[in-house]
Design a protein that fits this description.
Strand order of the largest sheet: 1-2
Number of helices: 3
Largest sheet: 2 strands, antiparallel
Helix content: 55-70%
Structural class: mainly alpha
Distance between the termini: 49 Å
Length: 64
């Protein structure tokens, strides 16, 4: 495998992780700014919020 192909494979593999990290960073920014509308706009309709306790799992509407 060429160095270019290897670099491309690594970049493609890490892209979803980088995108997820960017969303989590944005969630933290919006939460600290208390910007609820923008915060919840990042959730998909079927998203689940998982809290720190094992029983803390809510749909978006319940979490709001």
């Amino acid at each position: 495998m060429s160095l270019l192909a290897l670099s491309l494979a690594i970049a493609l593999q890490s892209a979803p992780e980088a995108e997820a990290a960017a969303v989590v960073d944005r969630l933290h920014e919006l939460a600290s700014a208390a910007d609820g509308p923008a915060y919840f706009d990042l959730f998909t309709p079927d998203a689940r919020f998982v809290g720190t306790d094992g029983g803390e799992r809510w749909g978006v509407e319940a979490f709001k």
